[in-house]
Write the structure tokens for this entry.
Amino acid sequence: MTEKNECGCGKSTQETPCGSGHKPAPGNTDNWLEEQKLQECLQRIRHKILVMSGKGGVGKSTVAANLALSLSLSGKRVGILDVDIHGPSIPKMLHLDNANVQVKDGAIQPVEHAGLKVMSVGFLLKDRDDAVIWRGPMKSSVIKQFLTDVDWGELDYLIIDSPPGTGDEPLSVVQLAEPVDGAVVVTTPQDVATADVRKSIKFCKQLSLPVLGVVENMSGFVCPKCGEVTDIFKTGGGERMAAEMNVPFLGRIPIDPAVGEACDSGTPFVYHYSRTETAKAFERVIAPILALSAKQADQETQDQEDVMKIAIPIADGKLAMHFGHCAEFAVVEVDANTKTISGTQSLIPPPHEPGVLPRWLHEQGVHVIIAGGMGSRAQALFVENGIKVVIGAPSEPPETLVCAYLAGTLQSGANVCDH
Ligand code: ADP
């Protein structure tokens, strides 16, 4: 049975934070802090894409690495996370077999390669040929660490290469990195006939994870001499299967000896052979993935036009004069068209550290902050984060202040606490 937590939102106490910004029940602080940290890291990654396959050897990691590189070549900030715990192949594919992972300021630094940020369990094994014997909960906790403790920074895309099948790793990714934007399912013409690839698609459907599409890899053969593509096996099965299962088909990638050679020597294919037909096939595969950012940018513009968010530091239900250390923020949402209040959210800020609040409030979509007093450095940081600062407001309830602000009658101007 779901136990009510302190805020009474109905979520289990294990599930805090509930999203309402309320404090966790006593005793759950560690879970809550961990969850907060995970959410903070995830908020800095705009799109998370899972690459899956029904079985091994179909070119899943090849597709994942080349997808990541194609996105990076399109000017996006991209990370690739290899969660294939038993058979990590991304280090070899990118020629990073001997890469050493550094820790800086308590955060694991991803290995940087060809414009990508790369992390793999392969980097952490002493001997790269070691076998890893980990059960489900351990896999989940290592994946959580990869999401939380790796310094990914701001990313447009994180491409997650999962092991073949529908085991613990893809399940943990979907649960931990929520919301994952979708999955790319890689198959070969021969694999299409097997139940494995359909299982991958059903897995996504069961978890309400959108299938961005199916890629038919190793479909036809590119002659290394003339570049002509010959269908050595029956092709087109991937497209038919995608239609049957009502998911998009992203395209065919031929067997190209240059792909194999590039991967085996660690020179990423699309990087060096960007003019070939095979690289163009990879480019077609990333089109719907690139469209995700365009869609999000449109949505953000639309949201910004419709809703204005005004943040106010709060103590005892009223504006808190000491803004930097306040324990709660009210975020009042205003319908930008009618200039009326449509709701108020109560949010708990992250632990105090210099510069954290402007960034955090920017991530919450805040446009204006109304405060009593604020140091000039903090004011500059808010402005850098696109947030308008109104200072010198009195200690009143948030809605009263916002109504006055909207009516142009808010008492403001004098900085009552410049330290
Ligand atoms: P998986 O991740 O599904 O196990 P990999 O991506 O490791 O598969 O690919 C297996 C092998 O097939 C690698 O040696 C890779 O270079 C090769 N390969 C994958 N796709 C192609 C392709 N389109 N053309 C040529 N070789 C390929």
